[in-house]
Design goal:
The chain is an alpha+beta fold. Helix content is 26%, strand content 18%. GO terms for molecular function: zinc ion binding.
Length: 122
């Protein structure tokens, strides 16, 4: 997983910007959606920033969104997906087989404490 992958979760919404252009973020502190990923730089670029990158570093391998399966998973997206919907300050780390639900430690103590034998960490 690339350490420089960026994503943004809009406050007050369920929208997740999957990848942010690192060049725009560095230059203007603006979160603009990325359209390309450079494997050698381990950075993401929007349509405007990929051209200067390509001119300067022509031998680098870049992947567009049609090849998004070759992009690393963004840490912020992973964090968003692993955050409990009910208890935003807790990470999901258990599965209750009885209720067939993913649970955080707070969910376990609040709603699943009587079925602790059925809980499995993943």
């Amino acid at each position: 997983m690339a350490t420089s992958s960026q994503s943004s979760v809009e406050l007050g919404s369920h929208e997740v910007k999957d990848y942010i252009c690192n060049a725009c973020e560095d230059k203007t502190n603006v979160e603009k959606s990325a359209d390309f990923y450079c494997k050698q730089c381990v950075r993401f670029y929007c349509g405007n920033c990929i051209d200067p990158h390509g001119n300067a570093l022509a031998k680098h391998t870049t992947f567009g969104r049609v090849e998004i399966d070759k992009w690393p998973v963004s840490k912020k997206v992973v964090d968003f997906l692993q955050t409990c919907d009910v208890h935003k300050d807790h990470t999901i780390d258990k599965f209750c087989n009885l209720h067939e639900q993913l649970c955080c430690p707070k969910c376990v103590s609040d709603q699943h404490r009587y079925v602790t034998l059925q809980l499995f960490s993943y």
